[in-house]
Automatic annotation (TrEMBL):
Matches recorded under PANTHER family: OS09G0467300 PROTEIN-RELATED, PURINE PERMEASE 21-RELATED
Main location: membrane
Keywords: Membrane, Transmembrane, Transmembrane helix, Transport
Gene designation: LOC106779172
Biased composition (Basic and acidic residues): 393-403
Pfam families listed in its UniProt record: PUNUT
SUPFAM superfamilies noted in UniProt: Multidrug resistance efflux transporter EmrE (SSF103481)
Membrane topology term: Multi-pass membrane protein
TM segment ranges: 66-87, 99-118, 139-158, 170-188, 195-213, 233-257, 269-291, 311-332, 339-360, 366-384
Family: Belongs to the purine permeases (TC 2.A.7.14) family.
Region feature (Disordered): 393-413
GO cellular component, one term: membrane
Name this polypeptide is given: Probable purine permease
Length: 413
């Protein structure tokens, strides 16, 4: 009997458990139905206010995005111009080391590290999930070293040009980097030449060529800009080669993003800048010691016209402004595109010569004025072509994306 009772209890226990187990889903099912009614009722109540809330949020995001674009554009224009003027001031007041003038353009990259660590983790998970096939460490090392050495050479040539040329002439010649960028992009990145692009190339080429015949004679310029014809030619050639190197750097970087790394996120851009700047800085330090210029830095500090403190502050703020300029470029590249960033960068071309007239009393001769007007015209043609390309790209993406088309249709209503 006891055994029978135990069997009866064991037989009834699963049945009881089964009954309880079946009761829970029914309750859950009823609660889901009730919640579904409430949820549908809640959504129905908000169906009238939803589009208005979305529109307000989209406007806020748009305004905030434009605010960031304005801030980054100001960093590019103001800090880039200030860094160029301070670089010239270094030579004006007694600085003689071209390697030191180059070092401040790249050596301040540790300032970017806080910005790097703040922004990089945001894209880390997404990048790895979307692009599981990463390039090898050897390939990345080769890319960073080669581009870093190219940067070091280009910035050294920029320092040579800034040493020999008035800052207004130097800035106008630098506008040719836009033409070189388009030319190298044609061969490396399959850029298509349009009438506006060809017009920009021709105008920028003529603008730089006119400056070859610019006579920087001692009778016309102040003592600070008196240079010999030989030094003028050296400065001109160095600046043209530096602009070509800069255009090649932009085209190669775009090619690396497309063919090697196969993505262009903020983290990838930051990696490219940090590591190439590190390589370039090391190469410049080697050049500083190999050339023997480091021996004269102590005397240079003592003989600086405005004093030792001014010497240190000049180099420090030049390095800081160049890195703030880089942050502005990163911001514009992240918010809009690298092409838009390049377009904003070249807007400094008319700005720097006007500031040079004010601060360094550079003479704006007739040929230089014509050169500046042609450069501005070429820049406008370039910007208009970028506007056309950007508009066509957005139209194509809208056509292929039904959700985007629906949202745009609702906005226009």
């Amino acid at each position: 009997m006891a055994k029978l009772r135990r069997n009866t209890r064991s037989a009834t226990l699963p049945e009881t458990f089964f009954t309880i187990h079946m009761a829970d889903p029914q309750e859950v099912h009823l609660s889901k139905i009730a919640n579904g009614v409430k949820e549908s009722h809640f959504l129905g109540d908000n169906s009238f206010h939803g589009p208005m809330n979305e529109s307000a949020m989209s406007r806020k995001k748009m305004y905030y995005s434009w605010f960031r674009i304005v801030i980054h554009s100001a960093l590019v224009l103001v800090c880039g111009s200030a860094a160029t003027l301070l670089g010239r001031l270094y030579y004006e007041k007694g600085g003689k080391s071209k390697w030191m003038g180059t070092l401040v353009q790249l050596g301040g990259f540790p300032i970017l590290l806080p910005y790097y660590f703040i922004t990089a983790p945001k894209n880390l998970t997404t990048n790895n999930s979307i692009h599981p096939n990463q390039p090898s460490a050897t390939m990345l090392a080769f890319v960073y070293v080669s581009i870093g050495l190219l940067l070091a050479l280009g910035f050294y040539l920029y320092s040579v040009g800034l040493w020999y040329l008035p800052v207004s002439t130097y800035s106008l010649i630098c506008s040719s980097q836009l033409a070189f960028n388009a030319l190298f992009s044609y061969f490396l990145n399959s850029l298509k030449f349009t009438p506006y692009m060809v017009s920009s190339l021709v105008l920028l080429t003529i603008s730089s060529t006119l400056l070859v015949v610019q006579n920087e004679s001692s009778s016309d310029d102040s003592d600070s800009t008196q240079i010999s014809k030989k030094k003028y030619v050296i400065g001109f050639i160095a600046t043209i080669c530096a602009s070509a190197g800069y255009g090649l750097w932009l085209s190669l970087t775009q090619l690396v993003f497309k063919k090697v790394i196969k993505r262009e996120t903020l983290k990838v851009i930051m990696d490219m800048i940090i590591y190439t700047f590190l390589v370039g800085t090391c190469a410049i330090i080697v050049g500083l010691f190999a050339s023997g210029e480091w021996h004269g830095l102590k005397n240079e500090t003592k003989e600086y016209e405005t004093g030792k403190a001014s010497y240190v502050l000049n180099l420090t703020f030049t390095a800081i402004f160049w890195q703030l300029f880089t942050i502005g470029c990163l911001g514009l590249t992240s918010e809009v595109s690298s092409l838009f960033c390049n377009a904003i960068t070249v807007l400094r071309v008319p700005l720097v010569p006007m500031l040079a007239v004010i601060f360094f009393h550079d003479k704006m001769h007739g040929i230089k004025v014509i050169s500046m007007m042609l450069a501005i015209w070429g820049i406008i043609s370039y910007l208009y072509q970028q506007y056309i390309d950007d508009t066509e790209s957005k139209n194509r993406s809208t056509t292929h994306d039904p959700k985007a088309s629906a949202s745009l249709e609702w906005v226009h209503k």
